[in-house]
Design brief:
By secondary structure, the protein is α+β, with helices and mostly antiparallel strands. The chain contains 16 helices and 19 strands. About 35% of the residues lie in helices and about 20% in strands.
Length: about 475
C-alpha cells in the first residue's frame, strides 16, 4: 500500500468541509476505492464523501490551492479505469447526492442528483407511465452521474439512443470550484455553445456533475421478443444486417456467441440452445398492438430468409423476461469461468460485423487465448470478453496483444475503440489512432482552458503533456 501524500493540514481542511466521518484514509477504505470493474489497482490518498454542491465546490477550490488531484466517482462500475486515482489524490465519492429532485410529468423531464442509481431513476419514471430509455448493463448498480460521464449506452440504444440523447441540462462544479448551469428544460435550445454535450462523455475530466435533467418518453405499451438460433456466427451477423434493412427498427437486437451461450446456460439454466454457435435476441415495441405484431412478422420474415436454424417467440412476460435475463447475465456468467475477466468494447458499422467478429475469433486462435463475444449487434457494438488468469503473465501479455489488434481492426473498419465504456486509462494509446493528432490537440486545448491546474481526473482519456 503506497503512503498517503496529503498533508495533515489538507486532510484537516477536507474534514472541515465534509465532516470528520466523510474523509476516509484507512488502508482498507483506500483499497476498496482503488478499483473499478476492470480490476485496475490505483490507490487514492483519501476518499471524500460530500453531501451537496457547495461542499464539492469547496473541495475543488482546496484542490487547486494545494495541488492535489480529484477523481469523481459514482458506483465504480466503469470498465476503463475512469473512476480510479491514476495519480493518487482524492476520490470524490458523490453517492451521498442520491435524491431525485423533481419529475415533471407534463414536460416529461426528470431531475436527479448524480448518485441516484439508474434503476431507481427508471423505476420512478415508470410509476408515472414514463420511460428513461438508456439501460446500461450495470443498471441496478451504476449511477446516473457515471452514465453521463461515460455517455453510457445499453440494450435499447439501437432504437432509443444513449445517455447523451436524453440529456437536457446540468448543474456543474468546474475544476476551479465554480458552480454553473448548462442546457435548458425546453424541447430545443441553441443558445451558445453546447456545453452540456461537451461534458457528456468527458469522463469526469472537465467538471463534477451535481444535478442532471433528462427527458423521458411515454412507455411503449406493447412488445414482442424473439430468439433466433444459428449454426455459425457469420450467419447471425448477416442476419443482423437483414433485420436492420428490413424496414423495422428493433428496440433491441443483441447477439451472443456459442461460448457465451454455454457459460450463461451453465450458470443460470435458462434453457438456451447450448449447441448453437450464435443466437440473436430481438425485441420490437410500440404504442399499438397491431403495429408491433406487424413489425414482429417483418422481422421474422427477414430471419426466415437468413441462415437461422430455429426461431422462437416469447409468448408471455415470463418467457420474455427469461430471454433478457440471459443477455444481462452474460458478464457475471463469464466471470465465473476464469480468475480474470477482461471485457472490451469496440463498435463497427453494422455491415462490418461479420468481418469484425470473425477477426476476434482469429485473434483468439493466433494468440491462444479464450474469448467470448456478445453485444449490441443492432448498433455494431461488440464486447469481446477475454477469460484468463492475471497470475499468468504470459497469458495476460497475449490477451493484451490480441486486444490491441482488435482495436486496430475496428479502426480500420471505420469503427471506434469505444462505443460505451469510455477511454479512461485503458485505451489512451489507441485514441490517437482513431482521431488523429489534430483532434487530440483540440481536446488538450479544451482541458487546459477548463482545468488549468490539471486537477480533475488526470491521466484519463489522453496522455497529458
Amino acid at each position: 500500500m503506497q503512503p498517503q501524500k496529503l498533508s495533515q493540514s489538507t486532510l484537516s481542511a477536507l474534514r472541515g468541509i465534509v465532516g470528520q466521518g466523510n474523509v476516509l484514509t484507512s488502508d482498507e477504505h483506500r483499497l476498496c476505492y482503488a478499483y473499478d470493474a476492470q480490476r485496475l489497482e490505483c490507490v487514492p490518498d483519501a476518499i471524500v464523501r460530500p453531501a451537496d454542491t457547495a461542499q464539492i465546490a469547496a473541495v475543488l477550490r482546496l484542490a487547486n490551492e494545494n495541488a492535489f488531484p480529484v477523481i469523481p466517482r459514482g458506483a465504480g462500475t466503469g470498465l476503463s479505469g475512469g473512476s480510479v486515482a491514476a495519480a493518487g489524490g482524492v476520490v470524490l465519492d458523490v453517492c451521498r447526492l442520491d435524491r431525485i429532485v423533481q419529475i415533471d410529468e407534463t414536460n416529461m423531464l426528470l431531475t436527479a442528483q448524480p448518485g441516484v442509481v439508474t434503476a431507481k431513476l427508471v423505476s420512478a419514471a415508470e410509476k408515472l407511465g414514463l420511460l428513461y430509455p438508456p439501460d446500461p448493463g450495470s443498471i441496478n448498480a451504476c449511477t446516473i452521474g457515471g452514465n453521463v460521464a461515460e455517455n453510457s449506452g445499453g440494450l435499447r440504444a439501437v432504437k432509443y439512443g444513449v445517455t447523451g440523447d436524453y440529456l437536457k441540462a446540468l448543474e456543474v462544479v468546474s475544476p476551479l470550484g465554480e458552480v454553473y448551469r448548462t442546457g435548458a428544460r425546453t424541447v430545443k435550445s441553441v443558445a451558445g455553445y453546447n456545453v452540456t454535450s461537451l461534458l457528456c462523455g468527458s469522463e469526469g475530466t472537465l467538471g463534477v456533475l451535481t444535478e442532471i435533467t433528462v427527458k423521458l418518453i411515454p412507455i411503449p405499451r406493447f412488445r414482442r421478443s424473439l430468439l433466433a438460433v444459428f449454426d455459425t456466427v457469420r450467419g447471425a451477423t448477416d442476419a443482423v444486417v437483414a433485420i436492420m434493412t428490413c424496414g423495422v427498427l428493433p428496440a433491441t437486437l443483441e447477439m451472443m456467441d456459442g461460448m457465451t451461450i454455454r457459460h450463461v446456460e451453465q450458470a443460470n439454466h435458462i434453457g438456451l440452445p447450448v449447441e448453437a454457435e450464435a443466437i440473436l435476441l430481438i425485441e420490437v415495441d410500440g404504442y399499438s398492438d397491431a403495429g408491433v405484431a406487424e413489425e414482429a412478422e417483418i422481422v421474422r420474415a427477414a430471419l426466415a430468409k437468413s441462415e437461422a436454424s430455429e426461431m422462437k417467440t416469447a409468448d408471455n412476460p415470463a418467457d420474455r423476461e427469461r430471454l433478457w435475463e440471459a443477455r444481462r447475465s452474460a458478464i457475471p456468467a463469464l466471470a465465473r469461468a476464469r480468475p480474470t475477466t477482461m471485457l472490451e468494447d469496440v463498435t463497427v458499422p453494422v455491415t462490418a460485423l461479420s468481418e469484425m467478429t470473425l477477426f476476434i475469433q482469429q485473434m483468439a486462435r493466433e494468440h491462444s487465448v479464450s474469448v467470448a463475444t456478445f453485444g449490441h449487434a443492432g448498433d455494431g457494438n461488440l464486447h469481446p470478453t477475454f477469460l484468463a488468469d492475471d497470475r499468468d503473465e504470459d497469458e495476460i501479455a497475449r490477451v493484451k496483444q490480441a486486444t490491441a489488434e482488435i482495436f486496430e481492426k475496428a479502426i480500420a473498419l471505420g469503427g471506434t475503440v469505444s462505443g460505451e465504456h469510455g477511454i479512461g486509462m485503458t485505451k489512451t494509446r489507441f485514441l490517437p489512432m482513431e482521431t488523429g493528432p489534430a483532434t487530440i490537440e483540440v481536446m488538450r486545448s479544451i482541458k487546459r482552458a477548463m482545468d488549468p491546474n490539471n486537477i480533475l481526473n488526470p491521466g484519463k482519456v489522453f496522455f497529458e503533456d
